[in-house]
Amino acid sequence: MARIVFTPNIQRLVECPETEAAGISVREVLDNVFASNPQARSYVLDDQAALRRHMTIFVDGRAIRDRAGLSDPVSAGSRIYVFQALSGG
Amino acid sequence: MTDTILVSTRKGLFWIARRSGSWKIEKADFLGDNISLTLTDPRSGLHFVALDHGHFGVKMHRSTATGWEEIAAPAYPPKPEGIEENDAWGRPLAWSTARIWALQAGGADEPGVIWCGTLPGGLFRSTDHGGTWEMVRSLWDHPKRKQWIGGGAELPGIHSILVDPRDSKRVWIAVSTGGIWFTEDSGASWAQRGEGMRAEYMPPELTHDPIAQDVHCLAQCAAAPHRMWVQHHNGIFVSSDEGKTFDEITGVEPSAFGFPVVVHPRDPDTAWFVPEIKDEKRIPRDGRLVVSRTRDGGKTFDILTEGLPQQHAYDVVYRHALALDPSGDRLAFGSTTGGLWVSEDQGEHWCNVTYTLPPIYAVRFA
Predict the structure, then answer these.
(1) Which of A81, B2, B23, B99 is close enough to B365 for a disulfide, judged by CB 3.0 to 4.6 Å?
(2) Is residue A78 part of a domain?
(3) Can you tell me the ipTM of this complex?
(4) CATH number at residue B240
(5) Domain of A37: which CATH number?
(6) How many independent structural domains does chain A possess?
(7) Tens of pLDDT, residues B256-304
């Protein structure tokens, strides 16, 4: 099981507690997370199920490379962080 | 008369209410969040609010007995494998809701139907009060849809939706930029409308092409639906045949540029505008904020200033930020610098409610 942590900024809009989920890719892990928290899905992924433009995901300290397919590999025990940029005024 | 106004701003949704003869800010919802637009459905009384959470996407909420609930936002269908689509500037066009830019209740005979226009050009229809949305594929897949062009908003978008009060299957939409489109079968098929409009900045061969027209706002007289008014990027146009053909109103002072237009619900010759210096400046002329009104179908315009700032006012009023209530007497508008004004007498006198709201995107009587 991988451990997934969501940015604190998303919590104000939709509850995304730290959780564990199975999967061998970022896509699989996120699908499992969103299966039990469907409302959170559209906050992280766009209409085409790609990572939203100003969001990023780190797996064990590395930013993922496949932002559309989310095929980056995940191991049991991986730590996944879902972050976003903050900008504007 | 409608005694509640919903004001959508860059930093929240504000409820303005008339109490003991004066207008006050009563409360704020979604404080700090970017609100694009609201709809109050006259059939159900439900309020809908479109939020743009930026990095977290576009969302929709609906009123409940005690507050708000998040409902589905319109979502684009999966882009087929191998389809590459670029916008007019050569950039990849994402099939994803970038902004909710129009919300319109369906007809009285189709409760639950809501229309929603978006950037980058998708039109959506709900039949269950916004619980689910279906894209109108006949319009999205129309070959000429790819000729729609983004301008100031970068992406093309549907900002005006009119449902024929005589027949709910007949719907007009307006696109910036892409002109006016019409369906008479609830969206199964579409035809371009809007002959006679003129885009002065386009190449000569496109100047009069209906698809090249940058309609900023399209409005229709409820009691005389054949009459439509357009505030266009470079002028004001009026139609007396349901938008098939338009005539340009010339010599409009202080300017023919602006974003919103509203039409009196019973008098098709009476319409209001908020003129600005065109086009690259977009500020009131001479720092004087004015509303213009015609009562004779565009032959003459009254410049309404009573109660509006006439020195160093640089307020811009966006296309959804001028509203007329069903009485036809009460108007309200809000500006990019956070000013909000109400008139009880068709614009003769204006009362300032506040100068200090966040930038205002939309004003709607609830």
Answers:
(1) B2
(2) yes
(3) 0.84
(4) 2.130.10.10
(5) 3.10.20.30
(6) 1
(7) 999 999 999 999 999 999 999 876 678 888 889 999 999 999 999 999 9
Mean pLDDT of chain B, nearest integer: 95
Give the nearest partner residue to A55 out of B55, B94, B95, using CB atoms: B55
Residues 66-95 of B with CB under 8 A from A: 70, 73, 75-76, 78-79, 94-95
Mind telling me how many Å the CA of A9 is from chain B's nearest CA?
10
Greater model confidence, A42 or A87: A42
Evaluate whether residue A10 is within a structural domain. yes
Q: Do B96 and A85 touch (CB under 8 A)?
A: no
A6-9 long-range contacts (CB < 8 A, ≥24 apart) are A6/A40, A6/A44, A6/A82, A7/A81, A7/A82, A7/A83, A7/A84, A9/A84, A9/A86
Q: pLDDT tens, B73-84?
A: 999 999 998 888
Using the beta-carbon criterion (under 8 Å), do A47 and B55 form an inter-chain contact? no
Domain coverage including residue A79: 2-84
pLDDT reported for residue B278: 74
Q: Is B154's Cβ below 8 Å from some Cβ in A?
A: no
Question: How many structural domains does chain B have?
Answer: 1
DSSP assignment of B4-30: EEEEEETTEEEEEEEETTEEEEEEEES
pLDDT tier at A74 (50, 70, 90 boundaries)?
very high
Q: Residue A55's closest chain B neighbor by CA? A: B55
Residue A11 falls inside a structural domain: yes
Closest of B252, B209, B208 to residue B229, by C-alpha: B252
In a domain? residue B38:
no
Taking an 8 Å cut-off on Cβ atoms, the answer to whether A10 and B76 are in contact is no
Whether the ω angle into residue B329 lies within 30 degrees of 0, i.e. cis, is: no
